[in-house]
Specification:
- The complex is a heterodimer of chains A (about 450) and B (about 425).
- Chain A has about 450 residues and is an alpha+beta fold.
- Helices cover about 40% and strands about 20% of the residues of chain A.
- Chain A is built from 17 helices and twelve strands.
- In chain A, the strands form two sheets. A six-stranded mixed β-sheet of chain A has the order 1-2-6-3-5-4, with helices on both faces.
- The longest helix of chain A has 19 residues.
- By secondary structure, chain B is of the alpha+beta class.
- The chains are: A alpha+beta (about 450), B alpha+beta (about 425).
């Protein structure tokens, strides 16, 4: 085959992007509504309420997940089955998600169904009845899912890393949906009380994205949410503690053909002045297909299908994370490479080209990632869940532009020492322990059964 | 509908490349989406996994782009990019800022026109290892991870084009040679076997001129021989009971070979999928998850394929302590009932509403719309195929749907795959 190819083109700088400013209203009952208008015919509604896992009482882990899951399983007007059928009549989807800092309830619906959709969403917050029988059923499902997550190598590795990074008294060290023991201890009344204390209009934000006019939306919101009063006003407390000392946990899963590797440490949160620089350095390390980690572990050595490094935002703090599954025989060499790449980056820093490349990637990707109303709403919801102010994202982007290679290198060297990293490994202990001991020292490693 | 067919244009270059362009100026970005009419069903015996392994090699450099540069250049402008391989086709896609359109087209043209110039043993050996790890990560190291592979292998006879999965077997991956890869490229990667869709912030005439500039110089080559759909006979229904894997709970997977994409039956089965598993109030959710509390979730639906058959699946993940036979019994009853009694107009209307919402969901961004256009144009010669499907779903009658379920989803004819946790499994 013969080919005449045009010369390689250059790319002009794309236009600057600003995260949209929502039209914000506060209803008479204190409910904040942020509306992101767009031409999207699929409307996204997300209600953010401030209690997430960190607000769960000790021993009641999973209560937020069970509570949120029960909101549509029985209301004053619908049984759970009827509620599901009402969603189907308008082509809607509904789901709840609990994060560290919030509970998010998201309803998506084609625009024609917006009025009934708002009515249904309002029903979940104002008229949920938390029936005892449904509580038992939902708790059983949440327990089964928690068990399935524990028995999934990748998810287990994540859980174990959190257990290593956070102290036992810190809620962030336990699985999001709780444990079989904590779930077993819940009662229907506790769950209902927890959710009612979370469902207060003056502490909630309703995010709306999509093709609806302001006046039409305002009318519909008035009808649906004006009567929401809430009850049981209690302070939301966060159960956190200082980070744990670094440790390494191995979960023995005999016969594993891969080792799920997680490394991490608790570090600065999104509001911390060091966060933008650490984000740039972390992106150079593990944020793309050509990152330092991926270039070696995947593209040079083929140890893995993917390796990623990123910063996880939590309210008031953050978590530096590296994740990769590698084939069992490559476990030792992969860990040696991980440690050596981190050491090299600490010692030599990142280059100017890497720094500006990472900043471009982070900044230029946003308008593409945030094309849809759903993505915009989700981004804003994530910020709310982390307790970040409405201007945070644009200010963070502005700060990124000013990060130099020296800034990023210095923050990385200060915060990401291999000796400070916690490690979690799910794999065949008999095969991988000798290599782990060579890196971490035998006495530093705890082994637990799968 | 989001799509505006008035701004949709179709063209073909002299070398056979089909081009679909749709203007949308809401976002300063454009989705570039290429579908090649080659998937795992075009692989030869002993070389399973080659189409997908080849997809990886398309990122390892070409005549004028070094290994890794495809990702590096596009990442640098914030692009979203990837590629996937299925039984029927391989697609490559990137959404780029409008200013990056030339670069994206140039990179795609360089690997279509000049892949062999850069292909070498080092790249092959490396990506073979990466793909073997992809297989371990997605399948071999996952609870229930090989379920789909087992289902396809049991539903389609050895030698059938759908007997194996795109990921291929570890042995065949190990055996693939550089010559296999070169031959595969020469046979399938010609402009006439591809569709290029552009959706976004472009002027149609300008965009077409760019496509001509970058792709017009690629030789037409010889079109691959059309792979005839294989016989549509059914195997004797197979049953597989897995009891020796580390799974947390029982599970039951059912799979049926059903009519190929392009048939009315597929539209009926999309509606049936809503009614059986997908809708919020689907019958299997109501029966298995709510009333009987035998399952924690149910899934399923139609996987549209063009090589003579599609497949339809229904899956139930068992609740703690529930035996597979109990799940199977409940699934069987519910599916049989749908084949016997015509559902109410309300239930069907809800199913239609969910299908429409699903299409809106899938096409809400530029990339999703470009993918839909490529799908229709590549496999059916009609970029509006998905919209036409939706229109057919809107007018499908309840009894037509019931008859298709009765004809094709007889539980006695399904491939049945069950999982039961090992007695000594971790709990």
């Amino acid at each position: 085959m013969t080919t005449q190819l045009a010369p390689r083109p250059t790319v002009a700088p794309p236009p600057a992007y600003t995260f949209p400013t929502p039209r914000t209203r506060v209803l008479g009952n204190g409910l904040t509504v942020e509306h992101f208008p767009s031409r999207n015919r699929l409307i996204t509604l997300t209600l953010v309420t401030p209690a997430g896992t960190l607000a769960e009482p000790a021993g009641s882990e999973g209560i937020a997940t069970v509570a949120a899951s029960l909101r549509d399983e029985g209301t004053a007007h619908h049984t759970g089955e009827q509620f599901a059928a009402a969603l189907d009549r308008i082509g809607a989807s509904y789901e709840t998600r609990v994060t560290d800092g919030a509970t998010l309830a998201t309803l998506q619906v084609p625009v024609a169904g917006l009025a009934p959709a708002l009515g249904l969403l309002a029903e979940t917050v104002m008229r949920a009845t938390y029936p005892e029988d449904e509580f038992e059923r939902v708790r059983a499902i949440v327990t089964d899912r928690a068990n399935s997550a524990r028995l999934n190598p990748g998810m287990r590795a994540h859980q174990v890393l959190h257990a290593a990074c956070f102290r036992p008294e810190d809620r962030a060290g336990l699985p999001e949906s709780g444990t079989a023991t904590s779930l077993k201890g819940l009662t229907r009344d506790d769950v209902a009380a927890f959710d009612r204390a979370n469902l207060l209009p003056e502490r909630a934000t309703l995010l709306v994205g999509g093709d609806v006019t302001p006046s039409a939306l305002d009318d519909l919101l008035g009808e649906a949410f004006a009567d929401w009063r809430g009850r049981d006003r209690r302070a939301v407390t966060a159960r956190t503690a200082d980070p744990a000392s670094p440790r390494v946990i191995v979960v023995d899963r005999p016969g594993s053909v891969q080792t799920e590797i997680r490394l991490g440490l608790v570090g600065p949160g999104p509001s911390d002045p060091r966060y933008p620089a650490l984000r740039v350095a972390t992106h150079v390390l593990g944020g793309s297909m050509n990152s330092r980690l991926s270039a070696v572990l995947r593209e040079e050595k083929g140890y893995t299908y993917g390796v990623h490094g990123w910063l996880r935002g939590l309210p008031g703090r953050g978590q530096f994370m590296i994740a990769t599954p590698v084939d069992t025989p490559s476990t030792g060499p992969a860990i040696a490479d991980l440690v050596s790449i981190i050491e090299t980056m600490r010692a030599d820093g990142i280059t100017d080209a890497e720094c500006s490349g990472a900043i471009d990637e982070l900044l230029l990707g946003a308008p593409l990632e945030l094309q849809t109303a759903a993505a915009v709403v989700n981004q804003r919801a994530t910020h709310l869940a982390q307790g970040l102010p409405s201007n945070w994202f644009n200010e963070h982007r502005a700060a990124l532009k000013h990060i130099s290679a020296a800034d990023a290198s210095a923050v990385f060297a200060e915060l990401v020492a291999p000796a400070a990293l916690c490690g979690a490994f799910v794999g065949d202990a008999e095969k991988i322990m000798p290599e782990l001991e060579a890196v971490f020292g035998g006495s530093a490693i705890t082994v637990e059964p799968f | 509908m989001i799509t505006t067919p008035a701004l949709r244009h179709q063209h073909a270059l002299a070398n056979g490349l089909r081009v679909v362009i749709e203007e949308d100026h809401d976002t300063p970005a454009v989705a570039v989406n290429l579908w090649y009419g080659v998937g795992s069903r075009h692989e030869k015996a002993g070389r399973t996994g080659l189409a997908h392994l080849f997809e990886h090699l398309m990122f390892q450099g070409s005549a004028n782009a070094a290994a890794g540069e495809h990702f590096a250049l596009l990442d640098a402008i914030g692009a979203q990019l990837n590629a996937t391989t299925s039984h029927d086709r391989t697609n490559y896609f990137e959404t780029v800022p409008t200013q990056g359109l030339d670069l994206a087209l140039w990179l795609e043209a360089d690997r279509l026109g000049g892949l062999l110039a850069a292909l070498d043993q080092t790249g092959l050996d490396n990506q073979r290892d990466v793909v073997r790890n992809e297989r371990r990560q997605r399948m071999d190291n996952q609870p229930y991870g090989t379920a789909w592979e087992r289902l396809f292998a049991a539903t389609f006879e050895p030698g059938h084009q759908y007997h194996h999965m795109p990921i291929g077997s570890m042995r065949d991956l190990a055996d693939a040679t550089l010559d296999d890869v070169r031959d595969f490229f020469r046979e399938h990667y010609v402009p006439g076997n591809a569709v290029l869709s552009l959706v976004g912030d472009v002027d149609t005439e300008e965009a077409l001129a760019k496509v001509e500039r970058y792709f017009g110089g690629i030789d037409a080559g010889a079109m691959p021989q059309v792979k005839a759909p294989q016989p549509t006979h059914r195997r004797i229904p197979q049953r597989i009971d897995v009891t020796d894997e580390d799974v947390p709970n029982s599970a039951v997977f059912l799979m049926w070979p059903v009519p190929a994409d392009g048939s009315d039956a597929c539209d009926h089965l999309d509606l049936a999928a809503q009614i059986l598993t997908e809708a919020n109030s689907s019958r299997l959710k109501q029966e298995l998850v709510r009333r009987e509390r035998a399952a924690t979730s149910v899934h399923g639906g139609l996987n549209r394929m063009v090589g003579g058959r599609s497949v339809f699946t229904v899956t139930a993940m068992g609740a703690d302590g529930v035996e597979p036979h109990r799940l199977l019994e409940l699934m069987t009853e519910t599916i049989q009932r749908l084949g016997k009694q015509t559902p109410s107009e309300q239930e069907l209307e809800s199913a239609r509403a969910n299908c429409e919402a699903g299409h809106l969901q899938a096409t809400q961004d530029l990339g999703g719309r470009a993918d839909s256009l490529s799908h229709g144009a590549c496999l059916f010669g009609d970029p509006g195929y998905d919209e036409a499907t939706l229109e057919a779903i809107r007018t499908c009658g309840a009894d037509d749907m019931r008859r298709t379920v009765s004809d094709w989803l007889d539980p006695a004819e399904a491939t049945v795959l069950t999982y039961r946790p090992r007695e000594d499994a971790a709990r």
